[in-house]
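Most newcomers find our protein records easier to grasp once they have seen one. To make this concrete, we reproduce a full record directly below:

===
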Amino acid sequence: MSSLTLAAAEEIVEAAHQRALAVGKAVSVAVVDAGGFPVAIRRPDGARPLTPDIARAKAYTAAIMQRPGTMLKKWQESQPVFFSQLSQLPGAALPIMAAEGSVTIKKDGEIIGGLGIAGGTADEDQQIAEEVLASLGYELEFAAWGVAGRPAGSGKDA
C-alpha cells in the first residue's frame, strides 16, 4: 500500500509553483492524503488570499471522491441537489468542488491523495496540475465513476 509522504507532497507543491511561474501565474497549491487531510499547502507571494482555501477544497474533492474534478463536473451538472447535499454530510470537512484544478493523485493503481491548484484560469489550473503529476510519474487515467460490473460491450451484464 502506497502513501503520500510529506516529501512527495512538497515535491508536488514545488513543481506546481515552478510550472505556474513559467506561465506567469501565482497559484496556491494544496496536497491532501487519501482521506482528504492536508499534507502541504502553499500560497506564494502575489496569490489572492482565498486561493489556499479553494485549492484545499479542490484537493479534498479529488481525494475523497476518488476522481478528478473534471470527471465529476458532468455528474454535478446533472445532479446539483445531490452535490450540494454532499457538502452538508456530517463527515464532510470541506465543500465538494467539481472543478478544473482538482486532480486525484494515483500511483501504482492506488489513490493516495488529491491535488488542488487555484489562482489561474480554470484551464491553467488544470493544465498545471496534470503536467506536474505526469512529470512526477503519477497516473492520470481513471475509470468512469459509479459504473459497476464489466465495461460496456463486454458481453456480460453487471
The beta strands are 28-33, 38-42, 102-107, 110-118. The chain has five helices and four strands. The first helix runs from residue 6 to 22.
